[in-house]
């Protein structure tokens, strides 16, 4: 179709291997000496390193079922947030929602019976997504966002990340 598999609302830009020309700008910014000094790092940033990807594939570590580790993480008490943009095809919200519903953990039944609720942003006043939460697991779909949610929805991303980091249990803000 020529559409960007990371954001089906746009055409894929063939000048970059991952459809997003902004990735070049992000890489240039994160490799600036002043930015690296502020972050306290001294490495070359590479957004998607195809050589590393290839090495994972050749070692047999690509597309492994790491999802099987998630139940122990949740059951050990770690608050877990799974989120996806509604325009991302490659990591789509329907598939992410489906695997969270099938996840075998101690709160599965309660999570599955919990309602999906609207998330209305306090910052923009807009309906920003929907979420389901129970105990330590939350699933969130962000509206009008592709794979790069913070790029597509910077205000909403900042809001939900800050809310989550500060200990917010739900998005009924």
Automatic annotation (TrEMBL):
GO terms for molecular function: serine-type carboxypeptidase activity. Keywords: Carboxypeptidase, Glycoprotein, Hydrolase, Protease. Its EC number is 3.4.16.5. It holds the Pfam family Peptidase_S10. GO terms for cellular component: fungal-type vacuole. Signal peptide: none annotated. It is an enzyme of class 3 (hydrolase). One of its GO terms (biological process) is proteolysis. Coiled coil: none annotated. Belongs to the peptidase S10 family. This is carboxypeptidase C.
């Amino acid at each position: 179709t020529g559409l960007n598999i990371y954001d089906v609302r746009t055409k894929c830009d063939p000048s970059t291997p991952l459809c997003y020309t902004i990735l070049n700008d992000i890489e240039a910014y994160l490799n600036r000496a002043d930015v690296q000094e502020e972050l306290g790092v001294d490495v070359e940033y590479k957004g998607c390193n195809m050589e590393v990807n290839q090495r994972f594939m050749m070692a047999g570590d690509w597309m492994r079922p790491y999802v099987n580790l998630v139940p122990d993480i949740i059951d050990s008490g770690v608050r877990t947030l799974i989120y996806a943009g509604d325009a991302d095809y490659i990591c789509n919200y329907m598939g992410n929602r489906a695997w969270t519903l099938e996840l075998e953990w101690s709160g599965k039944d309660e999570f599955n019976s919990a309602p999906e609720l609207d998330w209305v942003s306090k910052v923009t006043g807009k309906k920003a997504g929907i979420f389901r939460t129970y105990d330590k697991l939350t699933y969130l779909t962000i509206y009008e966002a592709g794979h790069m949610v913070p790029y597509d929805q910077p205000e909403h991303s900042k809001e939900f990340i800050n809310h989550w980091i500060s200990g917010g249990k739900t998005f009924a803000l």
